[in-house]
Amino acid sequence: MGTFSIWHWLIVLLVVVVVFGTKKLRNIGTDLGSAVKGFKDGMKDAATDTAPAGQVANQSTADQTIDVQTKPKG
Q: Which residue spans traverse the membrane?
């Protein structure tokens, strides 16, 4: 029960091909590949387009002053 032999994996592969068919498996592979590529491109774009978080916070509060009064609880 520890490891699976090559025969086990071949039977599993055969069952998957019979259940889904080769065309459906090809479509799933294509969709998965395009999703991974899109994720990698998005991560690359996000890394180059954004500034560090400290700089963003300082820029947004440096331009404006906020004056707030608090009400005592009573």
A: 1-21
Q: Tell me, what amino acid is at 17?
A: V
Give the whole-angstrom CA distance, residue 28 versus residue 35.
11
Specify the pTM. Answer: 0.46
Enumerate residues 6+ apart whose C-beta is below 8 A from 17: 25
DSSP 50: P
Q: For residues 20 and 68, what is the distance between their CA atoms, to the nearest angstrom? A: 63
User: What's the pLDDT tens digit per position in 37-56?
Assistant: 999 999 988 878 765 555 55
According to DSSP H, which parts of 1-74 are helical? 6-20, 22-49, 53-62
Q: Tokens standing for 45? A: 């774009």
Q: How far apart are CA 67 and CA 37, in angstroms?
A: 47
Q: How many residues does the chain have?
A: 74
